[in-house]
Amino acid sequence: MAFVGAPLSAAKKLQLRDHMEQERQLTPEGLAELRRRLEARRDALIRAKRAAEEIEYPDPESEEIARVSPEELERIDFPSGIIPEEEITDEVTEIDDAIVRMQAEQYGVCDRCGKEISFDRLEQFPYTRHCSNCARIMEKQKRDLEAEGHQVSDPEY
Question: Do 123 and 37 contact (CB within 8 A), yes or no?
Fold first, then answer.
């Protein structure tokens, strides 16, 4: 027979989650692995950007395209999975910033509260600048501002 206790309060859930996150902290080995992953992702993004730059797209105003019927356009096999150049540039910048923080021994420290960011969070978001608690606070602030009708950009996690 299983014992079912009272449900946990929101504060207790946050406290438990924070405790669980603190169990796995960043080690030198973990830092080296995250750096390898960041560098591999950066290299892949740069290769994708170069490949996209080599694709020759026809001018949408050209006579060649004008002669293609809408039905034919639907059958054309366009490349999938292409990441917009701006997104690639933004992500490469985030990765470069994370590597600079690693070199300065500031990686894994929350920009907002100064506490250590858990290894689990860094594994999930390797170039995050905020611990999970601050990220939740910032996300709530964003939702509150949006509810008031303000247009807000995504917070940096």
Answer: no
Angle between helices 28-54 and 85-103 (to 10 degrees): 150
Question: Do 8 and 16 form a contact (C-beta atoms < 8 A)?
Answer: yes
Spatial CA neighbour of 21 closest among 96, 122, 97:
122
Q: What is the pTM of this model?
A: 0.65
Q: Which tokens is 8 given? A: 């946990």
Cβ–Cβ under 8 Å, residues 118 and 132: yes
Cβ neighbours of 42 (radius 10 Å): 20
Phi, psi torsion values for 85, nearest 5 degrees: -55, -40
pLDDT in tens, 39-64: 999 999 998 888 877 766 666 566 66
